[in-house]
Amino acid sequence: MCGITGTLWTTRDKNISPLVLRSMTSVISHRGPDDAGGYHSDLESRSFLFADENQWSDFTPNSETGAALGHRRLSIIDLGTGHQPLSNEDGTVWIVFNGEIYNYQELRTELVRQGHQFKTESDTEVIVHLYEEQGAACVEHLRGMFAFAIWDERRQRLFLARDRMGQKPLFYREEPGRLSFASELKSLLQLPGASREVDPHAIDLFLAYQYVPHPWSILKGYQKLPPAHRAIYEQGQLTVERYWTPPYQHPELRTDLNFQSPQEWSKVLRQTLTESVRIRMRSDVPLGAFLSGGIDSTIIAGLMQSMSERPVHTFSIGFPVKQFDETSYAREAAAMLGTEHHEYVVEPEALEMLPRLAWHYDEPFADSSAIPTMYLSQVTRQEVTVSLSGDGGDELFAGYDRYRAVALSQWFDRLPGFLRKMMTASIWQKLPASVEQKSFRRRVKRFLAGLAVPPERRYLKWVGIFDTERRLEMYTTEFREQIQNFDADQFLLDAYQLCPDRDFVTRTTATDVLSYLPCDILTKVDIASMAHSLECRSPFLDHHVAELAAVMPLELKMHKGRGKQILVDTFADLLPESIQTRKKMGFGVPLNHWFRHELKPLLYDVLLDQRAIDRQIFDRKAVEQLINEHQNQQWDHSARLWSLLVLEMWFRTFMDPASIPDHFPEAALV
Q: What is the pTM of this model?
């Protein structure tokens, strides 16, 4: 695990000094505390360590075209010789790499047979030689999580790539005469004169989804390379293309994954996921697993334990509020599997956490489960350097409760028109309902409200934070004019086009794989884990597992409205009975309670502060109404209020003159 950054310039005035490269690299030092290195095409030695800055005090740029690469390393594989930037034999191809290539040993054997000479034992060097053999197609042979940049000196080409599922991030900025890239946006902001103009469309997207989806960035002129995409910058031209798509559409074409019976599907699922876990246990440093007590993490921990001679270290985190605490299930799973379990109870300090979240996530990010994920990463890193997780199981195997609502809505769409009209009548929304967002009556009202719109937009209405109507009510007139004719829903609608011919539940899971999974879940885990220099590996996200899930019939995943049925059937020997049948809890925090108690003053002090109002984004009366409705228990607006709070804290961290948070609140461990 690492942090990467760099730039390619095609005009002399866009050349950057080693001092600038050092700043770009240092600001992401948390991603790689073990080592730091750089490459600059204008320096005689090319590759160098970031040592005394006086050595570059007289630096003069002299090349019309060239490149600079920076790297921060968290050492996992080849601790002794895996220093980056790293080159091929003659120093004409250089790479900075973030991630893990799990099939690197197999690839290395073939490359040695083809005559390539290796100077390290690292997976990074495999990519360099594979690029020499395959060019841009090299990425198609990699099995792992990655974001990397290759500088091809002979062709004067910069090649960028991101893994299929989107586990590792990659931002970039294209401007006349230069393309720059980095693992985190804050690195690009170290460039002299870096623009910090907020994109109003990105704010609209953030309030719709609780994240800024790819390829957008919160700032104009900056973009994210989408998952499963590669880019080539050559002769001043940038070309971006997709290199892999999960095979949801026309699954019959995957004859290698066309099985006839549930038993055959279970057999190949067990084999594929077991192999995925096995290759993710390759490590030269201590390794463990997150264990929430849910189906996915228990399966991963169980497979690890079955392949380990010693008890696997497992980690769970709990909260004093019972409805958010899963530790009893994690404890039961650990006892059954025989792991060495580490359990912590924390009292999250949201007030102290907010500035740190804003700093690490670079963009507004309102998934409140980032808070416990940060704490879990903190306590896990005290024992191990690598942790396996169960991320991806819900999206790939229809595990979320909302998929049941999607299935039910298909029944509604087949009803006669007069019945549909009756069920979507506005009168139902006027009936009283519990203030608790997850209460049965409120869920029914939310379900009925969504039925009036087309299925794809209906899904966003269910899972989104602010729907279109509520966002427009919140905005000032001036801000509405900036985003007129922009449809934030289109990001989700485009994802739905991946498999237009499958059943709508499968289409919805595929949409989540392309959108919610990389933009929310994987962003959350990457940033939280790397903030504590912890590597997180996700066996469910192996593209072999993802491809198998994509072609699998829905009836194997969902049975009588319950998701992940094939996971339970296939891995029943690893799952305690209570976990097989328990309802999904989620990894949340008590926002509803906080905003009526501990964080109540913060809502007024921050959201209604003149600084926030002067941004001319939100109408003061609309914000005040939102707060008052929540305080008076007329509605649970906690997710919406958290989004507004996160957005304002981001402004204060990156746009206003403010100091960078210098600490992370330590968990109060019990």
A: 0.91
